[in-house]
Design goal:
Length: 274
């Protein structure tokens, strides 16, 4: 069973008053005036198969990738009810790492108003507003992200996605390295947000903790609506394909909007990751 990540910013103090709702404050209040917990469980895969680091997968670009690293940042989580009202998870606590190589797949969320939620929204990476608050304001998360290979230097910022391994194709029978590091730069803001419909209402109650099972398809990064051929991105020496900026990174950011889908929701008091 994959281990559970505790939000590194979780405070022991009650912070219900710090939460916010939609701009018209049309939240309708809690179901019973209490608060509960929820989990987002990210199940990493590749085009319908389970992602196993060190295993090989062939995409529609006719390139076979052996994936050695797949880590990413999830942020700015919002729970949405059927009437459109929102519970915005406190921003200063809403930055998380998902890491396949470290078996970090579950985000544990606390002090959510009891209610029935039909959608979840979150960001891929770190938004520019948060980044511009400066290093001191986010030092703890910066250090944590750095441990999981999700930072460059402070001046160049966060890696939102770190996707690495080797690849072969009809053009190269000998494996070549690849690195796709999705992040923002001085030219473009590559932070993206996705909103996902829940196939079953997530019931948050004081004694009920829904687990929202999200499938993440790493194949979409290079093989989504935009097709990114790694061989075409080899360096002049022909040894390494690195995508860390430029037009292809913008295309990859568009691809990642299709990378997540909610498979199912478990309602109840236990943890369910099947």
């Amino acid at each position: 069973m994959k281990s559970i990540i505790k939000n590194i910013f979780t405070a022991t103090a009650f912070f219900g008053l710090l939460t916010s709702c939609s701009s018209d404050d049309n939240s309708g209040g809690n179901v019973d005036g209490t608060f509960g917990e929820a989990e987002l469980y990210f199940d990493n895969g590749v085009n319908g198969d389970a992602l196993v680091l060190g295993s090989s997968y062939t995409n529609s670009n006719e390139e076979t990738l052996t994936i050695n690293r797949f880590n990413y940042i999830i942020s700015n989580i919002v729970f949405i009810k059927a009437d459109g009202s929102e519970f915005v998870y406190p921003k200063e606590k809403s930055y998380f790492v998902v890491s396949e190589e470290s078996n970090i797949n579950t985000l544990h969320l606390e002090n959510i108003p009891s209610g029935d939620y039909t959608k979840v929204k979150f960001g891929i990476g770190v938004d520019n507003q948060r980044y511009l608050e400066g290093e001191t304001a986010q030092q703890e998360f910066w250090n944590y992200a750095s441990q999981h290979h999700l930072t460059w230097t402070w001046s160049t910022g966060y890696r939102f996605i770190n996707f690495e391994g080797t690849f072969t194709s009809s053009n190269n029978s000998e494996p070549k390295n690849f690195q796709i590091h999705q992040g923002s730069n001085t030219a473009t803001d590559n932070y993206r947000e996705v909103t996902l419909d829940l196939p079953t209402t997530a019931r948050v109650r004081q004694d009920e903790k829904p687990s929202i099972h999200i499938i993440t398809d790493a194949n979409k990064i290079a093989d989504g609506v935009n097709k990114i051929v790694l061989f075409d991105n080899l360096n002049p020496a022909g040894t390494n394909a690195s995508i860390m900026g430029g037009e292809n990174l913008i295309k990859i950011a568009e691809n990642t909007l299709q990378m997540f889908v909610v498979d199912h929701v478990h309602n109840g008091s236990g943890n369910h990751h099947d």
